[in-house]
């Protein structure tokens, strides 16, 4: 009978250790996703800064090469961190939509042999940059406050 009790304790201890390991693995996965999302959003804000410089110097062809990678970074950040709030998810999706619209506008203007509306594009980029920085800061604050996501 004593052997059964010891076997039961060993089995329970193993189950407890297994659950703790699984929880730690899930926390690590979440934390990695959160860090990757922060990195993506940081890169995206840097890409926006580059786009603003290209727009201000009217380097439209070079700017066209930057829109797709920028959209991809924002989408990656959105996918990598599922704990973004609904509002943050919506803001990131809105940023993706605005980036696509800006790209379409630049393509159309170049096709029609006219300059795109650089001041309007600049204002739009500033708005997108602000949204991305807010999402990035929110994730970073969550990381600092929670320590583990």
Structure write-up:
The chain is mainly alpha-helical. Helix content is 88%, strand content 0%. Helix 1 packs antiparallel against helix 4 and helix 3 runs antiparallel to helix 4. The longest helix is centred in the first third of the chain and has 55 residues. It starts with a helix and ends with a helix. The model has no long low-confidence stretch (mean pLDDT 83).
Salient structural properties:
single chain, 149 residues, mainly alpha, 4 helices, 88% helix, rod-shaped
Helix content: over 70%
User: How would a textbook summarize the main sheet?
Assistant: none
Radius of gyration: 23 Å
Distinct helical segment count: 4
Sequence of secondary-structure elements: HHHH
Ends apart, CA distance between termini: 44 Å
* Poorly predicted parts: none
> How much of the polypeptide forms β-strand, as a percent range?
under 5%
Overall pLDDT score: 83
How many beta-strand runs? 0
| Class computed from helices, strands and strand pairing | mainly alpha
Shape: rod-shaped
């Amino acid at each position: 009978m004593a052997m059964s009790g010891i076997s039961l304790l060993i089995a329970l201890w193993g189950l407890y250790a297994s659950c703790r390991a699984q929880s730690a693995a899930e926390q690590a996965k979440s934390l990695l996703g959160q860090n990757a999302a922060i990195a993506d959003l940081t890169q995206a804000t840097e890409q926006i800064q580059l786009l603003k410089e290209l727009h201000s110097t009217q380097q439209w062809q070079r700017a066209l090469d930057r829109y797709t990678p920028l959209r991809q970074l924002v989408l990656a950040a959105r996918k990598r961190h599922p704990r973004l709030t609904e509002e943050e998810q919506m803001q990131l999706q809105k940023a993706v939509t605005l980036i696509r619209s800006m790209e379409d506008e630049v393509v159309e203007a170049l096709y029609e042999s006219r300059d795109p509306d650089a001041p309007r594009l600049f204002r739009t980029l500033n708005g997108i940059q602000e949204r991305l920085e807010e999402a990035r800061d929110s994730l970073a604050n969550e990381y600092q406050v929670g320590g583990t996501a």
